[in-house]
Amino acid sequence: MSLKIVFVIAAFIGAIAAQHYYQQPHHSHHEEEHHAPAHYEFQYDIHDDHTGDVHGQKESRKEHQTQGEYYLIDADGHKRTVTYHVDGKSGFIAQVHREPIKGYQAPQPVHKIVVAPVQQHHHHY
């Protein structure tokens, strides 16, 4: 479970870095020469049987080209997959695909019943 948390944190940091990059003002060609080309890859998958949380993402970037995909299982039993790319000029372009999962059964909530002894108080008058 802790490894899953590490992947989620790494993905979060990558997403923040990507967002920061795309929100920066455009620089002149001369200023860009001082920065090394961006290059990274990451991937994570979560499958938690207890909560029913199933999702994942993979992304790669080389210079101004970013491409990736993420998926999740919606509450209605459909798998939603989003593929996306950014080429630096066109902005964020995504395609969404949904398909039902055969035999999918949503996790059932666990109901706990707590039984505590009842204390009886006798008042003597």
From TrEMBL:
Write down a Pfam family by its short name.
Answer: Chitin_bind_4
Which superkingdom is the protein from? Eukaryota
Q: Which residues form the signal peptide?
A: 1-18
Q: Note whether Signal occurs among the keywords.
A: yes
Entry keywords, A to Z = Cuticle, Signal
Keyword Cytoplasm assigned to the entry: answer is no
Q: What name does UniProt use for this protein?
A: Pupal cuticle protein
